[in-house]
Specification:
373 residues, alpha/beta, 7-stranded mixed beta sheet, 3-stranded antiparallel beta sheet, 12 strands, 13% strand, globular
Amino acid sequence: MTGFSRRVEQVSISGIREVFEAAGEDAINLGLGQPDFPTPDHAREAAVEAIRSGKVDAYTSNKGTEALREAIAAKHARDNDLDVDPEDIIATSGGSEALHIALEAHVDAGEEVIFPDPGFVSYDALTHLAGGTPRPVPLRDDLTMAPETVEEAITDDTAAFVVNSPANPTGAVQSPEDMRAFARIADEHDVLCISDEVYEHQVFEGEHRSPAEFSETGNVVVVNACSKAYSMTGWRLGWVTGANDRIERMLRVHQYAQACASAPAQYAAEAALRGPQDPVAEMRAAFEERRDVLLDGLESMGLDCPTPKGAFYAMPKVPEGWVDEVIDRGVVVVPGEAFGEHGAGYARISYATDMETLKEAIEVMADATAAVR
């Protein structure tokens, strides 16, 4: 029998998925990284109209429709004060594919990729699948990633480092000074900075800034998606943008792995990006309100939790046995170690659920906390 590649043997099923499978059918799910809002009507209708008119019956350009890429470029001008050429954008099957092709195009066998620990589970797995060597780095007490920690981790074998702000799983938001420093590090050390900005619009305190604003050498690639901003996780529409030579290399991976992003999703994304942005603001306000309720609940339990300034996750420090006790009582949370070695002793709680359900879950978590102490 033909064996399996060493790359894939280094990757296991996500610890998040294992938690879901262990929970009961009626459990309250605070483990899911998905907004609980509907996709905006104007985005849905754009996809329906494109389907009815026959616009989606054929491949689009490998990079995506010109109209979508122009809408993405306009979004970067509006939100990030960045002048992005639509030719330097690839529409992808979600932010996940954007991360994948960025790493595949820039990492050779054995080269190192630096990323936050705890951090999004895909960073480690996609580094292995690209043949690279993961170099997770610990975070500050507030769960942000220190530029000096990244710089100290860089070696002659470093190909890239990943910045994620607002961050999954921590909800941390990097400061503008940090982002400027990450751009400097990429420039001075001539390594790639991959900036994962998928949660860009969920910022409650501080501001979102991209290291691409500060880069002088084209050593920053930005990954983003409609998934979290417009509650379009199932549509699978993301993008990557960067210097033209980097885009052309990533396109070589994308065109063979994916050909093009889903055509209906491209029309929906174009409408979401160009249309009213009220749904984005409404979701952000709802998430902030839920965050505050959750933080009050955790404080009442006596659990220490760095204040998440963005995304829709909180990551409190928890006693031994807490996660299992909470899950046994019917609330799904994710153990911190699912996100890296330094996540041990924490739990990730998603508050992307309605307020009534969240309050019910907080009561269960309070009882669980009392039980393990």
